Input
Amino acid sequence: MASVFLCFMFFTLFLHSSYSISSKNLFLPLKLQHLPSGSVQKPPNKLSFHHNVTLTVSLSVGSPPQQVTVVLDTGSELSWLRCKKTPTAPLWFDPLRSKSYSPVPCSSPTCRARTRDFIIPVSCDPKKLCHAILSYADFTSVEGNLAYDTFRFTNSDLPGIVFGCMDTGSSSVEEEDSKVTGLLGMNRGSLSFVSQMGYKKFSYCISGRDSTGVLLFGDTEVSWVGPLSYTALVKMTTPLPSYDRVAYTVQLEGIKVGGTVLPLPKSVYVPDHTGAGQTMVDSGTQYTFLLGPVYNALKNEYLKQTKSMLRVYEDTKFAFQGVLDLCFLIDRKRVGLPLLPSVTIMFRGAQMSVSGERLLVQVPGLIKGNDQIHCFTFGNSELLGVESYIIGHHHQQNMWMEFDLANSRVGLAEFRCDLASQKLGMGL
Output
């Protein structure tokens, strides 16, 4: 899902799409930045990233190649770039400079492809080109034409990648918006970037220590990570109005604070008859969001267990970034946070433990007397405007995250992600 709660991953991409390249591995260096198999395979390509608010990727598109910066989003399908209206537009892609650029005509089957990203059906513009409007959960939208162009990975070209060449749009965060060219859709839909590349697996590891990490396309030996725990992707064959069938949906089974499991029935974690209530692993959302009943139970239990160590910030009108409404007063002179109870997200077959600094985020610039304000990094989905459980990238830090499309599962293991680039020989 493209939202204001994003991490930025920076990498240089060189791609090819008219043939399958699933037999190759690609390692991409990633870095976090603050912005409010059996057969012999070729050596993997590599990329690093930065993260904090939005995951962005620097890549090359067009002929001759133009460098662009896009948000990496496992919650979206169609990739898109902002296309220039004026020669002075920063970071925008200029289709007039690309000899390999080709707009998608209305008569093309690509124009009739079905995707949940198209809240409004595609249409024909006056030039009989395929016109699309994409809308997102944070109430932003972009509009323009579908097109093909060449993306490049190292020594390989990927011609004919389908993307949106968008020339208008709205943003909830204009400052952040101006620093990116577009979005790289990475869900399981047929038009997603990973699907068009032909890869059946990709992984990433986000560091919470020194803002470095890796993104890997393909399969490779990572035994040094240790055994991964796998949770199966939920298969939903019946079309439901509120259910995203191409998201990375897993089954949430419970939440534990310290050693206490929230006393809720497992049925509360199961999607209802409309599909609302699915659990999605989303790199395009920064924090983790829970449906109201579960969030309220988590909030109450966390307050109970931290009563002796944290002071609540009693401002009922305040919510950090409009969505994190449980905040605390922390003495400015204090070094580090107190020893807080961990929160464990329990999936079917796997679990993700959130502890330490990943539990609270400091509100920049907000001081009350001698105190800083720190907010709980779990939020209520209702404040985000969605009816889903969303596992954001902030809680995926120092976790090796594997998206195994071939076996319909997500794997995870705790790992020092700042060491991943060294282990992969990336020299970052």
